[in-house]
Specification:
mainly alpha
Length: 251
């Protein structure tokens, strides 16, 4: 995201100007997560200062677009959304045999002073948006269930090994593999959860530093790996990189 190219708050959040409030909220969360402290991007493409600067822009954009009244004032000032119809409204209304789209306001002003049809249509639009946004909330609940299925861990706990994990201060590839297998996460599932290739996962577990990318990338990979296993990601990533550097330079 190049801030110099962003001309308005909609572009900062990367949403269209006719986005619903729910879509704006979802885009805000997605953008915030992408540049947060636990994002792998911090260890690969961008500095902490750059990420913080983008996060400030994201927060500023959401503080306006995420509040209906402020968004309305902003749209008027920028000339946006002057004739916004919720996406899908016309198609949904067309299914109703009793629905007839109203004329434009200018046509009514020329013909009569009766604006009741326009008022009714605006009311229908508000009702449509309400049901749209509540439907999105229901979908969000389903997404949480799907996320739990994807990232949830279900395994038989061993108190002795749990204590060993808790006391560990130096994580090696071998120990990470032992934890992964103990928590019944396959390499394939780990790759799906972290979006790290199976090859890199195996290289990490084999301590094969000759086949791993630069330390900043490897740290990001191990950070995500640790998060998925419900470990302390900062401790694991930092100690693993220290371990790998010792392997590279035994002296």
């Amino acid at each position: 995201m190049n801030l110099s190219e962003k001309k308005n708050y909609y572009e900062v959040l990367e949403v269209p100007i006719n986005a619903t409030l729910q879509e704006i909220h979802n885009a805000y969360l997605q953008a915030k997560n992408a540049y947060s402290d636990d994002s792998a991007a911090l260890y690969s493409l961008m500095t902490q200062e750059e990420c913080n600067r983008i996060l400030e822009q994201i927060e500023e954009a959401y503080s306006i677009l995420g509040v209906a009244e402020k968004r309305r004032e902003y749209d008027i000032a920028r000339g946006f959304n002057q004739a916004h119809t919720p996406e899908g409204f016309d198609q949904e209304m067309a299914k109703r045999p009793d629905y007839k789209p109203s004329q434009s306001l200018s046509d009514y002003m020329n013909d009569s002073n009766d604006y009741s049809d326009i008022i009714q249509e605006n009311a229908r639009k508000e009702e449509f948006k309400y049901h749209q946004e509540h439907s999105n909330r229901n979908q969000a609940s389903v997404s949480k269930v799907q996320a739990f299925k994807k990232f949830g861990l279900n395994y038989q706990q061993n108190s002795e090994f749990e204590q060993e994990i808790e006391n560990c201060t130096q994580y090696t590839g071998e120990f990470l593999k032992k934890i992964r297998e103990y928590k019944e996460v396959t390499v394939e599932r780990m790759a799906e959860m972290t979006r790290i290739s199976k090859t890199y996962i195996r290289n990490i577990e084999d301590d094969d530093f000759s086949k791993l990318p630069a330390d900043v990338y490897t740290r990001g990979f191990v950070y995500q790996y640790a998060k998925c296993l419900k470990l302390n990601p900062d401790l694991v990533a930092t100690s693993y990189i220290h371990h790998v550097r010792q392997l590279k330079n035994p002296s």
